[in-house]
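Fold this sequence, please.
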Amino acid sequence: MKKVLFHSLLLCTLALASCAPVAQLLQPAERSTLTRDGSSLVLTNPGPDALTGDPTKPTDGPALTIDTSDTLRLDAVAQAWCTSEKISVGLRWSCNVPNLLPGTQIRVRFEDGTVIDATVLAYRPSSGVRPVSIWLK
């Protein structure tokens, strides 16, 4: 029984770890990136059009979620966009960042901590209501 449980847990872990590459395969033309740059996360939008929030909510921007260690703090600009909640591995920051026009980027600076994972959920006007997922590289 323990062997079956172990193999089931292993399979679930592998399945969850493979979600990001599968998501990228489902949107092969997406060129936006979310990368680390020292003590910042940088969301870059090369185009072809803006990265926005939910098209049914005019004031909504792209949703950035960052899982971090307990000690991570964001700078004053990022704190205006983000709220945090305690999770089992540390903190989860949920951010509503400004819309990004083509050819622009946004930087989220942090201090004193470690980013474990991050993702962005956004929309492109040319894609209608189909969301765009951007995973931390």
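Confidence is low (pLDDT under 50) at residues 1-26. The chain is about 20% helix and 40% strand.
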